[in-house]
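Data deposition worksheet. Section B asks for the primary sequence of the deposited chain exactly as it was used as input, without tags or linkers unless they were present during the calculation. Section C holds the resulting structure in token form. Section D is free text for depositor observations; keep each observation to a single sentence. Incomplete worksheets are returned to the depositor.
Section A, Depositor: J.P.
Section B:
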Amino acid sequence: MIVDDEEIQQINRDYLQRDKPTNVISFAMQEGEDVGLHPGLLGDVIISADTAARDAFEADLSFESELYFLLLHGILHLLGYDHERGTEEEAQRMEAREEELFAHIQENFLSN
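Section C:
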């Protein structure tokens, strides 16, 4: 889902107790008490278009590239990668996987 800063701040506050906008939030369906309820469903990825646009501008990237990157980042979280709560090694593993996959995305989807 793509939302604005106001909506992602509300989601961030209500579900993660962080009262501020953020670029992406993932909610895994394969964690907690509902594991296995829908085995083919990884979960939800919510992206703030407002924050993505600011981040893209600051990094001198296209908005489309930033959206692809944030979606990739969110999906990696759904697959169990964690750069916030895990070890430094886990964070590095996630970053390496992000770089590998995003290079593939850039080569195959963003170069046209």
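Section D:
Residues 2-110 form a domain with the Collagenase (Catalytic Domain) fold (CATH 3.40.390.30).
The CA atoms of residues 8 and 14 lie 10 Å apart.
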